[in-house]
Amino acid sequence: MAGRAAAIILAAMMCGSLVCLPAGAENVPLPTPAPLPKTRSVPPPPQDNPAAATDSATDGQRQGGFFPFSFPFSSDKGSAQASAFDAKQRALLDRISMYLSSVQTLVGNFVQIGPDGGRTEGEFYIQKPGKVRFDYNPPSPIDIIADGSSVVVRDRNLATQDLYPLSQTPLRYLLADRIDLLRDTDVVSVSADDTFVSVVIEEKQLLVGTSRLLLMFDAKDLQLKQWTVTDPQGLDTTVAVFNLDATKKPDPNLFVINYTRNIQ
Predict the structure, then answer these.
(1) Which of 151, 165, 208, 216 is deepest in the core (most CB within 10 A)?
(2) Rounded distance, CA 179 to CA 173, Å?
(3) How large is the average pLDDT for residues 121-136?
(4) What does the chain look like in DSSP terms, one character per residue?
(5) CA pair distance 77, 212, nearest whole angstrom
(6) Exposed (0-12), middle (13-18) or buried (19+): which is 96, by Cβ within 10 Å?
């Protein structure tokens, strides 16, 4: 069930009922889900030495993943939706698209809050196009790896891995070599205040329901701060990122997937 547990992740990248807080983290502000970006409460950036996560890889954690692999994003949305936004909003979307396209490598830390309120932490590595790795700190045994075409959720304790197409996860937006939000996604909202620029992307499926991805950027430099995914059941997973370094080049071996492990 590692896939289901982490499978609702980058379907996070969010937080429902607040339970299973790690020891010493009672006073740490947690993201609060909000359908409207303007009213969303965002926690302050973690300090240099955030409290280590103490959540184990329980079923609760596993159901608060990083992305819902059941989030089947469409492509080639076209530019007709551009008319739904004014000139200032379109300019913001263009700037964000340029920022996402300009970042080719990225290394940093993350804090993840699952639908059950469980908190986990770790490090991540991005190498465009299509490659990413999320290493969760112990006691979580989970690693998430994308090699450009596929994503695996790997459980080190159980020695198992679940395989998914990269194209069917929200990871595609962070890992695309070039991205035009107005053309490639169904943007339903873009807003800005003195602190954040927020973009909401939605996907409606007749049989599955509606999924939502909320991306939040620093209002000054448009640096990515966090993302939140809400799956069709309304379960949220939030991932806040910090200590970002776009100059480091990750080891290519970090993104290798052993496909033979999926051969029965």
Answers:
(1) 151
(2) 7
(3) 95
(4) -HHHHHHEETTT----S---PPTT-TTS---B--SSGGG-B-PPPP-SSPPPP---S-HHHHTS-SEETT--------SGGGGGS-HHHHHHHHHHHHHHHH--EEEEEEEEE-TT--EEEEEEEEETTTEEEEEEPTT--EEEEEESSEEEEEETTTTEEEEEEGGGSTHHHHH-SS--HHHHS-EEEEEE-SSEEEEEEEEEETTTEEEEEEEEEETTT--EEEEEEE-TT--EEEEEEEEEESS----GGGG---GGGG--
(5) 16
(6) buried
Which tokens in the block code for residue 207? Answer: 């049989």
One-letter amino acid at 245 equals D
Domain ranges for the chain, please list them.
2-28+54-245
What is the structure's pLDDT at 13? Answer: 34
Contact at 8 Å (CB) between 15 and 239? Answer: no
Q: Which CATH number fits domain 2-28+54-245: 1.10.240.10, 2.40.50.140, 2.50.20.10, 1.10.10.10?
A: 2.50.20.10
The pairing of strands 105-113 and 8-9 is unpaired
- pTM equals 0.71
For residues 51 and 28, give the distance between their C-alpha atoms in angstroms, rounded to a whole number: 9
Let me know: does 120 contact 62? Beta carbons within 8 Å. Answer: no
Q: How far apart (Å, rounded) are the C-alpha atoms in residues 25 and 30? A: 10
- Considering only CA atoms, which of 146, 178, 206 is closest in space to residue 10? 146
What percentage of the chain carries pLDDT values higher than 70? 67
Q: 200 has which bridge partners?
A: 189, 214
